[in-house]
Amino acid sequence: MTNTAKVAKRVHREPATRAVGLRLTGEEFAAVKRAADAEQRSMSSLARILVLQGLAQLQAQNHAS
């Protein structure tokens, strides 16, 4: 497992990530990991991707209710 994959896995399990209701499916997690591996993103860039994805999910949930 690459360092980037380890970072993606660690960020996925962070309490703050779970606190905003971000639950990545296996497919979504794999997509984030592939993007991070392909671009060799730093942890801050990966965190930005996850935050933006979480915000998009929250917006979708708010519009659905």
What shape does the CA trace take? elongated
Task: Outline the biggest β-sheet.
Answer: none
* SSE pattern, N- to C-terminal: HHHH
- Secondary structure tally, helices: 4
The proportion of residues in beta strands is under 5%
Task: Provide mean pLDDT, rounded.
Answer: 71
Description:
With 65 residues, this protein is mainly alpha-helical. It has one domain. It contains four helices and no strands.
Describe this protein with a few key phrases.
single chain, about 60 residues, mainly alpha, 4 helices, about 80% helix
Layout of strands and helices, then pairs:
Blueprint (H helix, E strand, L loop, with lengths): L2 H11 L1 H5 L6 H14 L3 H22 L1
Short summary:
The protein is mainly alpha-helical.
